Amino acid sequence: MPLSPIRAARAVQILAARAALTCGLAHPATRTLLAVAASVAARAWEAGHRVHDVHPAPQLVQKDALVADDLYTRYMKAFQALNAHRAACGTCTDAVTCEAGAPLDERFTRLQDAYRARQSKQR
Ligand SMILES: [Zn+2]
Fold first, then answer.
1. Which of 9, 13, 62, 94 is the most exposed place for a label (fewest CB within 10 A)?
2. How many C-beta atoms surround the C-beta of residue 90 within 10 A?
3. Closest Cα partner for 101 from 79, 85, 113?
4. In angstroms, what is the span from residue 101 Cα to ligand 1's centroid?
5. Is the pTM of this model over 0.85?
6. Cα–ligand 1 centroid distance for 1 (angstroms)
7. Same domain for 35 and 86?
8. Same-domain pairing of 78 and 48
9. Both 73 and 89 in a single domain?
10. How far is the CA of 65 from the centre of ligand 1 (A)?
11. 3-class DSSP string for the chain
């Protein structure tokens, strides 16, 4: 089953970030992955996902916490937990999620879907 546009964008974004960290920005692999990430992000945009779906801004966690946006706070914490796990995990890839990463990925996806559903109701 193909990945949804937003999951594909997240997956390529993570790959590009890993390549940038390990190989550097000038490496051809990094540059190729960044180009693919831009292309996939454009497709996610066309499918209705917005930039904050792929790049939740950490400073927004504090801003929204101040207005007691519990759903958004939980969504951002789930995003941070998943990213922290993936940064440290040697098993998780775009195609494979380890046993410890699976619940983090599921929680993040569920909270993102709930947040996006609420946002679309408010528009
Ligand atoms: Zn993992």
1. 62
2. 6
3. 85
4. 4
5. no
6. 21
7. no
8. no
9. yes
10. 28
11. CCCCHHHHHHHHHHHHHHHHHHHCCCCHHHHHHHHHHHHHHHHHHHCCCCHHHHCCCHHHHHHHHHCCCHHHHHHHHHHHHHHHHHHHCCCCCCCCCCCCHHHHHHHHHHHHHHHHHHHHHHC
Q: How far is the CA of 63 from the centre of ligand 1 (A)?
A: 29
Domain total for the chain? 2
| Sign of CA pseudo-dihedral 49, 50, 56, 60 | negative
Q: How far is the CA of 77 from the centre of ligand 1 (A)?
A: 17
Q: What is the CA(90)–ligand 1 centre distance, in A?
A: 7
- Amino acid at site 40: V
Claim to verify: residue 85 and residue 43 sit in the same structural domain:
no
Q: Which domain holds residue 80?
A: 56-123
Query: What is the tens place of the pLDDT at every residue in 6-47?
Result: 777 777 777 877 777 778 777 888 888 888 877 777 777 777
- d(CA 48, CA 31) in angstroms, rounded, equals 26
Terminal C-alpha separation, the chain: 31
Assigned token pair, 77: 């914490």
